[in-house]
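#random but structural
TW: two for the price of one
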Amino acid sequence: MNMVLKLSADAPANWRRTFGEAWKPRSRATGRKAVIEDNTLTSTCMTYELQGEINQLNEVISATNEPGRDIAEQVAASQDAELKNLKGSLRYD
């Protein structure tokens, strides 16, 4: 059975690569591939394996997303600091 999951957005090439590297050990162990195209992830499994496959895919997706979250938090913190400095330096004469 082909299970097709819709991702929240089109997966950029570097995200697909990172996901593929993280999925590879599981793929070797189970013999299942997970293919990402645009905003869909397709995996083949038996019906009775569906929940386990979803759980594994969610773990790998979460691990793949983690570095992006860290970068986004760093950028947000940097921007907040810049705004705070700018507010402190503005003068209204």
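TW: number two ↓
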Amino acid sequence: MNKQLALVAAIVVLIAAVLALTLRGCGRTSDGLSPQQVQAGNRLQEIAARTGGDWNKLSPEERAFLMQLSHNNERSARMLLLNAARTGPPSPTPGGPPRRTGGGSGR
């Protein structure tokens, strides 16, 4: 009987430990970004604020940084800078309905 009681107590402690370790991360406010990603995002925001999104105002080091972020694609790097410098409302949600421009087939 004592062995059964000890076994039940050990199982209860084990389950409690597993639950405690599993639920430990649930209260985090992390956005899932690594410290390096946060640092890169902060630097991008600083560059965008200083240049206003103007590619010609970048230093060679800043251009190299943006090219690295965009996998050496200059067009993507320019778009990244422009989007980071935007201060207006966000773009429409990707996958949302298309915008109606008044043209088209008139259906």
